[in-house]
Design a protein that fits this description.
alpha+beta
Length: 297
């Protein structure tokens, strides 16, 4: 009687090896695909989170723009750091156009308000270059407290500045469009007006103010556009991007050379509740309440 040895034939072994290799390759391919997808989604979620948080902060500051605490000392409101007098209405809100960022198309937003009977705040939003990564720009928020000179209770009331905090990294564009109560774009709106605003007639006199200052109290709505780039490459193929924020010549139009980064634009529209206050007509006299009775002045 012969004993039979049990085992796999060479053909069976080769077939098993091939099936195993196919399974491993499929598993690796699936892992690689889902890993890349996860990285892409994570980057998109990260820029969305940082951009939306920044816009929420900007919206809060815009709602405070132009607010003056009733108990704020008027003699401090009317004294500038150089010693010259100016009216509070000349420093409420402003935009400097097409000055910042990699493409020199981004705006700077200037906001002024009082935070208490003793403190006045000035805030700048603008794009600054990251010193640790040349060619990369971030949205900075710079806060100045008591941006005036004078004395308060015998104490020198000096200007104090915070650091330029990085709100959002890898920002490609930042645009601010200010509109009046009828939805018309206001240009220029500024206290310190640069060449762009000067070309728009910021120096033209309107009463005892220039046009840039006179437009401040007309601002009813502020529209903010923020375009952010992913920190790392996302796409497998390079593609050219065109960014267009704002309206016509009052916004930006940027063409970015082909690359593999993801970009997304975020938008918020904010009502500046302390500016462009409504004037309600009085039926009997035809005057507004603001003029006729002193209400809501």
């Amino acid at each position: 009687m012969k004993n039979k040895t049990l085992g796999f034939t060479l053909t069976e072994t080769l077939v098993a090896i091939v099936i195993g290799m196919i399974s491993v390759a499929a598993a690796f391919s699936a892992y690689n695909y889902f890993n890349k997808s996860y990285a892409s989604i994570s980057q998109k979620a990260a820029i969305s989170k940082s951009a939306r948080e920044a816009l929420s902060l900007i919206a809060r500051d815009l709602r405070n723009a132009g607010y003056f605490d009733p108990s704020y000392p008027q003699h401090l409101v009317n004294i500038g750091c150089a010693g010259s007098k100016w009216q509070a209405e000349q420093h409420l809100i402003g935009v400097n156009n097409k000055r910042y960022g990699k493409y020199r198309q981004a705006d700077q937003l200037n906001i002024f308000f009082t935070s208490s009977p003793k403190d006045r705040i000035r805030i700048y939003y603008r794009l600054l270059e990251n010193n640790l990564e040349k060619g990369s720009y971030f949205l900075a928020r710079e806060v100045w407290q008591n941006a005036i000179c004078g004395t308060l209770g015998g104490r020198v009331h000096k200007e104090l500045s915070s650091n330029e905090d990085m709100l959002v990294p890898y920002v490609e564009d930042f645009q601010v469009v200010l509109k009046d109560i009828d939805g018309k774009i206001l240009m220029p709106v500024c206290s310190w007006c640069a060449s762009v605003e000067q070309s728009q007639g910021s120096g033209d006199k309107v009463g005892n103010k220039n046009r840039g200052q006179d437009n401040m109290k007309k601002v009813h709505t502020a529209e903010v556009y923020l375009t952010v780039r992913s920190p790392k490459e996302v796409y497998s193929k390079a593609r050219r991007i065109k960014i267009k924020n704002g309206e016509g010549s009052y916004g930006s139009e940027i063409t970015i050379p082909a690359d593999k980064y993801h970009r997304e634009t975020f938008f918020v529209s904010v009502h500046t509740r302390n500016l462009a206050t409504h004037q309600v007509k009085i039926a009997s006299s035809g005057q507004s309440i603001g003029v006729g009775t002193g209400y809501n002045k």
